[in-house]
Amino acid sequence: MCGRTSCHLPRDVLTRACAYHDRQGRRRLPEWRDPDKYCPSYNKSPQSSSPVLLSRLHFEKGADSSEQIIIPMRWGLVPSWFKENDPSKLQFNTTNCRSDTILEKQSFKVPLGKGRRCVVLADGFYEWQRCQGTNQRQPYFIYFPQIKTEKSPTRMPAILDGEEAVSKWLDFGEVTTQEALKLIHPIDNITFHPVSLVVNNSRNNTPECLAPADLVTKKEPKTSGSSQRMMQWLATKSPKKEAPGSPKKDESGIPQWSSQFLQKSPLPAKRGATRSLLDRWLKQEKEEEPMAKRSHS
DNA sequence: CCAGACGTTGTT
DNA sequence: GTCTGG
DNA sequence: CCAGACGTTGTT
DNA sequence: GTCTGG
């Protein structure tokens, strides 16, 4: 899935890219909170803060839920019951959420049911492809081509394509969870290219991170005489290691993506998964009302 | 009922 | 192998 | 996501 | 806080 993004635009440019239309159809720019925490980078990793869009109603009682706020936030979900001050003390991973279990996993379904939706802004994201026969992993940059509307903010494996989808996703006051989930579907107007291994280290923050690059050259580890003897010794002594050069099981030649999203892509499997996801939601809550109309007993 | 987890990746 | 830090 | 640490006592 | 497992 997604563990690295680029979000490098200057703040004013990013803000304009997030222009949207409110309930009255007026064109607006999202209002910033904590603008100084915005830290543009070509190489954003979990624990860093990324700009996030969310409904104003999350901040002000009685606010227009179609109005949007933009705030730098730490990557990863912190459960509401987590009392430590330091979110890095959370003892399990919440940097990703599987779309096929989001309605089962308590850490995600509870906040989802409360309308806690947001949109993480990014130029695109990185994925590492493991190739057979090497330990190296080939990074790729994946993004919307810069042709259409300039604004195409994304949430990672769940990508919202276009302003309207973003607005509906955020407007938890009017748009129910079930309607919101329908906005997430595989997108096809997306593209990618291989990038340099420079992106591997999250300290590297340069345009080279997302620049097109040649595929990683599979260099045979030039083994010195001594290391060859060492390898032989390991091969005979260690039951865990396989003899170097022994035939590998998987000769399919099919590239294995780390991402479920890219692996299964926009075809039947994913469609089916999405449908059963929605079906399950519909079963457990028949006539979901939008948040704005729910009674607060 | 209480205790304890609450999550993802990938690989075997 | 697994966790933390970036 | 990947890279890099993973530990303690005591002294400078 | 809420769910699962015992």
TrEMBL record:
Tree of life domain: Eukaryota
- Bias category Basic and acidic residues: which stretches? 239-252, 277-297
Keywords on this record? Covalent protein-DNA linkage, DNA damage, DNA-binding, Hydrolase, Lyase, Protease
Its Enzyme Commission number(s) read 3.4.-.-
Query: Would I find Coiled coil among this entry's keywords?
Result: no
Would the keyword Lyase be found if you checked this record's keyword annotation?
yes
Q: Name one Pfam family in it.
A: SRAP
What does this protein's UniProt record list under function? Sensor of abasic sites in single-stranded DNA (ssDNA) required to preserve genome integrity by promoting error-free repair of abasic sites. Acts as an enzyme that recognizes and binds abasic sites in ssDNA at replication forks and chemically modifies the lesion by forming a covalent cross-link with DNA: forms a stable thiazolidine linkage between a ring-opened abasic site and the alpha-amino and sulfhydryl substituents of its N-terminal catalytic cysteine residue. The HMCES DNA-protein cross-link is then either reversed or degraded.
* The protein's name: Abasic site processing protein HMCES
Q: Which organism is it from?
A: Microtus ochrogaster (Prairie vole)
